[in-house]
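Risk register update: the risk of archive-format incompatibility is retired. Evidence:
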Amino acid sequence: MTTATATLSHTAALSRLGHALGDPTRTGILLALREAPAYPSDLADRLAVSRQVMSNQLACLRGCGLVEALPEGRRTAYRLADEHLAPALDELLRVVLFVEPDCCEGPGCVCT
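Archived output:
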C-alpha cells in the first residue's frame, strides 16, 4: 500500500465517522454501543426515537462500516464493527472544544 493510498483510506474512514457523528441519533447509538452490544428496540427506547428512525440510522451506520449486525435467532443485536472504535470515542469525549455560540447554527454559520 502506498502512502497516498493510506492517506485516502484514512480520509475516507474519518469522513464516514464524521458523517456518523453529524447526527445526534447516530452519535447516541455509537456512544451506547461502546458500552455493549444492544438490540434496536432497546436503543430506540434509550434514545427516545421511533423504531423506524432507529432502523434507518443503524442502516446508515452499517453502510459506513461502523456497526455490525449480530443475528441471534429471530432478533438481531448490533455492536461496534471495530474494537478500536470504543476507545477512540472515549478519547473524543475527553476533547474540550470552545464553541462559538452562533457557530454551526442558523444563517450566520460559516461551517456549511
